[in-house]
Write a structure and sequence with these properties.
174 residues, mainly alpha, 5 strands
Amino acid sequence: FFQAEDGIRDYKVTGVQTCALPILRDWLYVDDHCRAIETVVAAGRVGEVYNIGGNCERTNRAIVEAICGLMDELRPELPHRPCRSLITFVADRPGHDRRYAIDCSKIGRELGWRPMMNFETGLRETIGWYLDNPVWVERVTSGSYRGERLGVVPGAAAANSHPAQRVDRTNEAQ
């Protein structure tokens, strides 16, 4: 992401490359993934394995085209519309698997868990979040991000936060 001189923000889709050969991936909205983990912790049998998946296979190209379509809709002021015209193909890496998916029927059958968010709505919400949070995106894509927790305000609501989110500040200078 970068700010153009004319004040129009250019958005760059990163992390998804597409090649000429179809590669299938199973997609799952992050809140559904978290809900599945909570379900396993609350109702799963100790020592049992539960695969978590979205039952939502799409090709990389379909994902990129969906992102481009949403960008055209959500940011009509972009100068390079339609965004699909920006798609370029990369060489497939050697040994690249053609399908990334798992059988997640067991978690549904035994624990009654199923994804709640459909792909289209989840993608729209995800892209909307990134567009609404450009400072966060810039920080994690600029190279300055070094793995630290982002979005945590020192001392804010520490007593009410999840134990994994609490920061020990007992040795900090006052």
